[in-house]
């Protein structure tokens, strides 16, 4: 069965998955990039930019697992780029260069239609304008039995949580405060939605939690 | 210098320091007691009820430290008991029996005056009706140079945070979701208030964070 998964989604101690004021220079909002420090030193992460070094510890295991058995991605438009409103032209193709780290179809939620973009390495960005259920159906069809990984941003994960569509999440909490930004859980009753924490594994860099629907 | 400290204050992954619907049977709200599972097995905690056994690991070290150099406590009325409104009589003397685990003066915030209660073992409950600043002044005078420990509940900690009166906090995050209850950080910008996380230590039972004012 194809599952909808969230992986390596990182929160601050005070519950923010991204800082405020996302823009071209701060794709994760002010202070948001540092949330992911636990990830940047891992071999799996560094391999993505051609670097052979990096740690192979628990943090790396969670990064590696996040890419395993993924047949399609879904992400919100805020994760795809900083542009809001109508697409001014076809030039923005994501943050990730010509060969993005997805290598599978990626379904981008947006209110503004746009033709698919075929990138190098197997990534194609598809723009879905008819809602999160439709994006999930399309992603399932494309994933060919593998899982669908839900990226971000926070607002997108919140939408799928509220509809009980997420099967499991790997969350990390980084040892920092963000003060403001996008809060993952505010106003969402995770217990009522049927979620439980089934595992905790901590490293010096972050604490990892597995959250599943009962 | 006498500091105002929060220790062993535990949150769920989704940010709640207590569950909903506190009452006589559920002093920490529904689900709230399980937040503190990391603490119940420690030697320091078990010693409080005369049991010599218990773990002496990192979790225990945090519990032990929480009682060191404490000259007075401040707590909200919700931590003192389940009664709301006027005191119906003098019979309620806290959750902790004749010999509470404080052994120093305890200042209870309330809107309803009441005479002090002298308990066994050095604990005296004083009822403060003129606000959090007054309680802090009284506690400082009573602490005789030692620190003041701020207990709970969540609402009380939030009041002192907003006034930047807390010098440092030891928070623990337990590997569970509460779904609803009292959220510690909602609407509070910890960075703007000057707080930073200076330490993370994890155990299989909880992740401990030290948060200090810069």
From TrEMBL, chains A, B:
Domain of life: Bacteria
Residue runs in coiled coils: none
Domain Bacterial bifunctional deaminase-reductase C-terminal: 9-203
SUPFAM superfamilies in the record: Dihydrofolate reductase-like (SSF53597)
Pfam families, per the entry: RibD_C (PF01872)
Signal peptide as annotated in the record: none
Protein name: Dihydrofolate reductase
Originating species: Mesorhizobium robiniae
Lineage start: Bacteria, Pseudomonadati, Pseudomonadota, Alphaproteobacteria, Hyphomicrobiales
């Amino acid at each position: 069965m194809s599952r909808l998964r969230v992986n390596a989604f990182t929160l601050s101690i005070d519950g923010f998955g991204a800082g405020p004021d996302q823009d071209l220079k701060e794709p994760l909002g002010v202070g948001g990039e540092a949330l992911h420090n636990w990830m940047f030193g891992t071999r799996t992460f560094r391999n993505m930019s051609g670097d052979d070094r990096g740690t192979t510890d628990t943090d790396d295991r969670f990064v590696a697992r996040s890419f395993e058995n993924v047949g399609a991605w879904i992400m919100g438009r805020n994760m795809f780029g900083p542009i809001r409103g109508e697409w001014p032209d076809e030039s923005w193709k994501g943050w990730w260069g010509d060969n993005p780290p997805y290598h599978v179809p990626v379904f981008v939620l947006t209110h503004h239609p746009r033709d698919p973009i075929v990138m190098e390495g197997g990534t194609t960005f598809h723009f879905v304008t008819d809602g999160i259920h439709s994006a999930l159906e399309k992603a399932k069809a494309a994933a060919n039995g593998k899982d669908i990984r839900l990226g971000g941003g926070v607002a997108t994960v919140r939408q799928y949580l509220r509809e009980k569509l997420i099967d499991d999440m790997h969350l990390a909490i980084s040892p920092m405060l963000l003060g403001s930004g996008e809060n993952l859980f505010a106003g969402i009753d995770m217990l009522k939605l049927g979620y439980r924490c089934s595992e905790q594994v901590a490293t010096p860099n972050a604490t990892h939690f597995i959250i599943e629907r009962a």
